[in-house]
Amino acid sequence: MSEPFRPTADPYRDLDVIDARAPRFNQATIGILSLVAVASGWWPILPLLAAQLAIGLRYGRRYCLACVVYFRLVQPRIGEGEIEDSRPPRFANQVGLVALSAASLSYAAGLRPAGVALGLMVAALALLAASTGLCVGCEIYRLTAHLRGIRTLHFDRVELADMGNAVAGSGELVVAFSHPLCTECQELIRGLVTAGRRLVTVDVRQRPELARKYGIALVPTAVVVDADGRVTSRLAG
After folding, report:
1. Which domain holds residue 222?
2. pTM score
3. Based on the domain organization, do 39 and 73 belong to the same domain?
4. Cys-Cys crosslink for 5: which of 13, 61, 76, 99, Cβ 3.0 to 4.6 Å?
5. Ranges of H-type helices in 60-86
6. CB-based burial label for 67 (10 Å; 0-12, 13-18, 19+)
C-alpha cells in the first residue's frame, strides 16, 4: 500500500511559504467566477468572492475554500510545486479583496458600468496570474513591500559579527537570507556552493531578528560583502 502524500511544506503550519501552484489555483477560481458574475449579471458572486478572500486572510488557509480544495484534492494528485515566499501572493489577495469589494459596492449602488469594469479587471488580472504566473499584486508587493509594514532597507553593510563563526577568514563573502523550504533559495545556495563561493546563510525562520534588522522583505536575498562587511554587489532580492 502506498504511503499517504506528505508535502515538504505543511500548508497549515508553514505559513511563511506556500506551494506556488496554490495561489495560481486560487487566482483561476477567482478569475473564472468573476468573469461569470460579470457576463451573466449575477453580480452577488463578487461580494461572495470578496468575503471568501477576507475570511481566508483573517483566519488562515483552512478557511479558504479554494485553498482547501487545492491542498486536499489537487496537490496530492499532481504533487508539490515550487515553494515560494507566501507574502507576495497574500498581498495580491489583499489587492483582490479591495477590487472585488469596490466592484460589489458599485453594483449595489447602481453604478453598473463601474462594477463591470472592476469585475472584468479582477477577472483579467486573476486569469493572467493563473495562466502565466505573472501576478501583478505580487509585483506590487515586491516594489512596495513597506505598504505591508515590511520596510525594505537598502543596506550597504553587513555586520559580520551577526553572522557568527561562519565568516572566519578573509576575502569576499556571500551572505544569503533564505528559508529552508524555499525552492528558489535552495537553488541559489546550491549554485553558489557549486561555484565555490564562500557563503554564509541566514535562515529567516530561525533568525527573524536579522531579517528585521536588514529589512528582508523577500527571500532569497543575497549580497556579496568584502572583508569589512561592505556590500559590493547584490545577487538576489
Report:
1. 160-236
2. 0.73
3. yes
4. 76
5. 65-69, 75-78
6. buried
